[in-house]
Amino acid sequence: YRDIARLETVLDGKDNGSEEMTKALNALVENRESVDNALRYEFSNGPMEGINNKIKVIKRVAYGFGCFTSFRLRIHLAFGLKKNCLISKD
């Protein structure tokens, strides 16, 4: 809900449950400023992380191929930057 007051209520509670839950809540408390900013603002690096991950997967699948031009073209095709292309044998 992006409700900072509600988060404060949960983090200030004394009975947090299991040991695992206590560890997770302590991590939130230690990073309180970052968590507050994440709730307050709409910015996210999620889309950029998704792009990086997709390129890394293409790179992993194409391991062993030495042609950078083909690798670059594969990235462009994956993101829809180029529609119809032919690879030259140069």
Explained architecture:
- The chain is an all-alpha fold and 90 residues long.
- The chain has two domains: 4-40, no CATH class; 46-78, no CATH class.
- It has five helices and no strands.
- It has helices at 4-11, 19-30, 32-40, 46-61, 68-78.
- The longest helix has 16 residues, at 46-61.
- The chain is elongated, with a radius of gyration of 22 Å.
- The model has no long low-confidence stretch (mean pLDDT 85).
In short:
With about 90 residues, this protein is an all-alpha fold.
Features:
90 residues, mainly alpha, 2 domains, elongated
Q: What percent of residues adopt helix (DSSP H or I)?
A: 55-70%
The helix/strand series, from N terminus to C terminus, equals HHHHH
Number of beta-strand segments: 0
Distance between the termini: 55 Å
The count of domains is 2
Shape, principal axes of CA atoms: elongated
Total number of helices = 5
**What integer is the average pLDDT?**
85
Beta-strand portion reads under 5%
Enumerate the spans where pLDDT stays under 50 for 5 or more consecutive residues.
Answer: none
Q: Which class best fits the helix and strand makeup?
A: mainly alpha
Taking the sheet with the most strands, its summary is:
none
Rg computed from alpha carbons, rounded to a whole number of angstroms: 22 Å
